[in-house]
UniProtKB/TrEMBL annotation:
Subcellular location(s) of the protein: Cell membrane
Pfam families reported in the protein's UniProt record: BPD_transp_1
Record membrane topology: Multi-pass membrane protein
Residue ranges of the TM segments: 36-55, 98-123, 262-285
Name by which UniProt lists this protein: Unannotated protein
SUPFAM superfamilies given in the database record: MetI-like
Source organism of this protein record: freshwater metagenome
Keyword Membrane listed: yes
Record has Cell membrane as a keyword: yes
Length: 296
């Protein structure tokens, strides 16, 4: 049954604010630094997705004939080689796939689980709200990095445990944001109209509440992504994340740190890539939060 809001309800709340045929209208609302950050992220995704297929070396291929710890600009190796004569450019790009996929997977899981908890707590209220939020408070009582280290150590170092560890520490943040947004929406006229029409709680939450809180949650997800990337790097640097020979920015920096006195490039390359990516995501996330705040 189609649920129509009563007369007087602001229908703009139920419809997208982006004009039809202008999918990237939001880019016009970004400042110049935010547009530059967005352009960098788009280029990064394209390079990480497409370029590795055309690289002459794999991440694990050793080129002892070329030399160890070669500097950038060496023959056949644009960024040089590491301590095992592996091409740094190949490892940097393939490592970016691993690091970014872990960060993306962690944010996605944290967002879905946190949103379910937050919307349930905010919409149902009562004892369920109290119980769920106390559990979230318990998780937030631990410093996020310490909790991630404990989870990763308990599960054992691997790709999957890194995703789980980072996603768990992100759930409380998403839960609190979605709960706050749900509390703001649940008593509005369009939700009350759905209840009067006989819609169930799950239907109201998914078809009425969720479409009106997705924009702030998307902005929160962008901020969380900026924290997930260095989180993965930290776990891998400490040996609790992705394990060699699979490259990630974190374990590349760990490997390069041991030979920094001989050549700084194996640690500089992933460190610069990490810093630029996190800075770009942070700037773009600030733009999304600002736009989301203006719309709401």
């Amino acid at each position: 049954m189609s649920i129509e809001p009563p007369s007087g309800v602001n229908r703009d709340r139920l419809e997208t604010k982006i004009p039809s045929g202008r999918k990237f209208y939001f880019l016009r609302l970004l400042t110049i630094p935010e547009r530059i950050a967005f352009a960098f992220l788009v280029i990064l995704v394209l390079v990480v997705t497409l370029v590795p297929m055309f690289l002459p070396y794999t991440a694990e291929q050793q080129n002892f004939d070329d030399g160890l710890l070669l500097p950038p600009g060496s023959a056949n190796h644009i960024l040089g080689t590491d301590q095992l004569a592996r091409d740094l450019l190949s490892r940097l790009l393939l490592g970016a796939r691993v690091s970014l996929s872990i960060a993306l997977g962690s944010v996605a899981i944290g967002l879905v689980v946190g949103a379910i908890i937050g919307i349930t707590a905010g919409y149902r209220g009562g004892w369920m709200n109290t119980t769920l939020m106390r559990v979230m408070d318990s998780l937030q009582a631990f410093p996020t990095m310490v909790l991630a280290l404990v989870i990763a150590a308990g599960l054992g170092p691997s790709y999957q445990s890194t995703v789980i560890a980072i996603s768990v520490v992100m759930v409380p943040g998403f839960a609190r944001v979605s709960r706050t947004l749900t509390l703001r929406e649940r008593d509005k006229d369009y939700v009350l109209a759905s209840r009067v029409a006989g819609a169930k709680g799950l239907r109201i939450a998914t078809t009425q509440v969720m479409p009106n809180i997705w924009a702030p949650l998307a902005a929160q997800a962008a901020v969380a992504f900026a924290h997930a990337i260095p989180g993965e790097a930290a776990l891998s640097f400490l040996g609790l994340g992705v394990q060699p020979p699979t490259p990630s920015w974190g374990n590349m920096m760990a490997d390069g740190y041991a030979y920094i006195s001989l050549s700084p490039w194996p640690i500089i390359a992933p460190a610069v890539a990490l810093a630029l990516t996190v800075a770009s995501v942070s700037v773009f996330a600030d733009g999304l939060q600002r736009i989301s705040g203006e719309e709401h």
